User: Fold these one by one.
Assistant:
Number 1:
Amino acid sequence: MFVVTNTFQPAFTGISSSFFVIHQKCTLVEGLGTIVQGPTIENVTWEKLKGKVVVLEFWNTACGPCIQAIPHMNELVTQFSYRPVVFLCVSDDNQDHLKKFLGRKPIKGWVALDAPLKPTETAFAVVGIPHTVIVNRSGRIAAITHPALLKAQHLEEILAGNPSTLPAPKVVSTADAPVVMVSNSLPSTVQISIQGPFPQPKGAFNSRGWKASNCIFEARKALLQDVLAEFFRISPKLVFKETKLPKGLYDITAAGPPEQMPELERQFIEAVKKKWAIEVQIAARQVSVYAMTVGSTNAPGLRSVQKPGGGGEKPGGFFLGGQPMRSIASYLESSLDKPVVDETGLQGLWAADLKWEMSRWELLLHFAPDPAKVIEATRQQLGLELRPAFRTLPTVEIRAPK
């Protein structure tokens, strides 16, 4: 269940700011983008689902634990096929890619795509996947869990109107909180929260990003180096360490009014220094990179699209359904272990399907790919050139205090 409020409050008590909601009934159709498998989208509303238990499963095709949970969830769908229980999987994948995936690995129940900017995922405060939310017959959240922990007995409890014996989610709850939407209220003051370290959880972790008009930063169970890169919006390859960073995973929230972003950055740097006795400085530095430019305009693996789409890594490559060129550069950067600077000049959204040659042993042992093979595959399949170069770029420098 969610806290009911209409003002932003940061995560000072272990509560993600994603859990803050407004006094307003929410229909799924307001947030979902497309129904890939199931009834028409007009029939997927809380009003029409009232009287049924709804199991919402947030996942995508690039999430290993999500895929591992599919057979278990399919068994539950079969077991409750003649009961008032609806299973709805919500993904942020590209639609064509998702349909191909379902052809290879069927999912029973309904399957939907979230709308652009993932409003449904945001409304249910999803900070890592897989993430399962069970809504009871009255349209109120009864439990939040990992799909592997959900058993038939838990659904029987909720069907009978009893409290769930699933472990309670770590959020403040209220017995009368309905299924509601996340508030769009913006913070009125600069506020920083740092919690942790935490052990690595089962399933997805290391979630971080900006939201709410890019003035609220949230990281959940994240590595500090990745937090710093995301907060300052640079590549993790441009974080240079002269001292060791603390181990473990952290929950970090930083929020401020849009007109006070410089002050938010200053206070964030001070909070990091106070917490870990390390100094963070933004400085321009000449670094070795790959400059990404257009080599061919008719490559088979790259095409312009109108709608945003998901995707992710796959063995020896990646697939993106509808992303800006900077996202393609980011995926290439991860494989090449060196910053990739987008100098293509290409605007809009792009679908990219790239696969490079890797031996069986490289795949089994998770070896890093041969950069030459990645560069050649990128040239042939995406029509993009990757050339070694030096560029002066903003970097994050981390050192011990003087």
Number 2:
Amino acid sequence: MPDALVLAIGNPLRRDDGAAAAAVDGLGDDRGVAVVVRHQLAPELADAVAAARRVAIVDAREGGAPGSIAWRELRADGAPPPALGHALAPEALLALAAALHGARPPAWLVTVAGADFTFGEGFSPPVERALPELRAQVAALLRVHGS
């Protein structure tokens, strides 16, 4: 069982949408931190969520000052049952892990506000500058809430 699971969500071919993967690159290590990079949250990730002691989902968002970082605790309780589809909201993924495995690991969503989601590679200047802080905040969140 991994001590922590980091799910980095986004498309690296949509500029700032790929920020999560860049920010968490190298966080996985032999201390029990597993990093999974995907374009979107999908039902098959419920098994990995259920097996982890804690979960951080990292993503880029639209809205807010570009480069600003926000995080919030996630809860499966009260989340609508997930419709079987290809993409899930974070709470729906947690609800699926709870429904399938009875697992409710503590989880957080950590986001960075993007400025450019057009086709292309690389990041807008505000997101590029925010990447080290995004990485540091995810690492600190996992460390502070470690078991």
